[in-house]
Design a protein that fits this description.
Blueprint: E1 5-10, H1 16-27, E2 30-32, H2 34-44, H3 48-56, H4 63-71, H5 76-94, E3 97-100, H6 104-107, E4 114-120, H7 123-132, H8 141-159, E5 172-175, H9 180-197
Parallel strand pairs: 1-3, 1-4, 2-3, 4-5
């Protein structure tokens, strides 16, 4: 039986990273998140801070920029994405794992052993988690949370052919208002069913 790889896309404050960590722990498989940044830095020669910042740069969709890139070397964000995609594919081929964000669902879209999930939650719940669990101190927390989502959507929509958060891009979308433990169990069950079909 081929191993299952679980990708977790998530709204900011939905608890998606917590779900991913718990899944990896309970299933006894590798958890990939910030390790990907370290590996990209190692392979490209850039610092981890530089790679992290490049991930959060808002890519442009202008015609002039695209034309420039067509005749020049790839931009730094493009170089980071190419390196990251290679690392994600290698990890998915090597072992069962849970991968958070970074367009992993798109990068592994043709892999039958990949369970592509997206976690969302009501805005008020996400604002509360940002304040109480993440310790975010912003005057307008609601605006901050929405801005984080826009940044993730911009990154995903630029590097993929799909739309971030669109249910058609994923195998399973779960609202974490039902509780983190329940979300973990739902994804574990889905992963088990997928494993049986491989």
């Amino acid at each position: 039986m081929k191993h299952v790889v679980i990708t977790i896309g998530r709204e900011y404050g939905s608890g998606g990273r917590i779900v991913a960590q718990r899944l990896a722990e309970e299933m006894g498989i590798t958890f990939y998140d910030k390790q990907l940044i370290a590996e990209v830095a190692k392979r490209t020669g850039f610092s981890e801070n530089f790679v992290r910042d490049a991930e959060h740069q808002r890519p442009t969709n202008s015609f002039l920029y695209d034309l420039y890139c067509a005749v020049q070397a790839p931009s730094l964000p493009d170089q980071m994405f190419i390196a990251q995609a290679k690392i994600i594919k290698e990890a998915a081929a090597r072992e069962p794992c849970v991968i958070v964000g970074r367009c992993a669902d798109y990068i592994l879209r043709e892999e039958p052993h990949c369970l592509r999930t997206f976690i969302y939650a009501p805005l008020e719940q996400r604002v509360r988690r940002a304040r109480e669990e993440y310790g975010v101190e912003e005057d307008d927390l609601e605006r901050f949370v929405v801005k984080q989502d826009k940044s993730r959507a911009s990154y995903y929509n630029y590097f993929s052919t799909g739309r971030w958060g669109d249910s058609r891009e994923y195998d399973l979308c779960v609202n974490s208002r039902i509780g983190i433990d329940a979300v973990v169990e739902i994804i574990k069950t889905a992963a088990g069913h997928l494993a049986e079909k491989l």
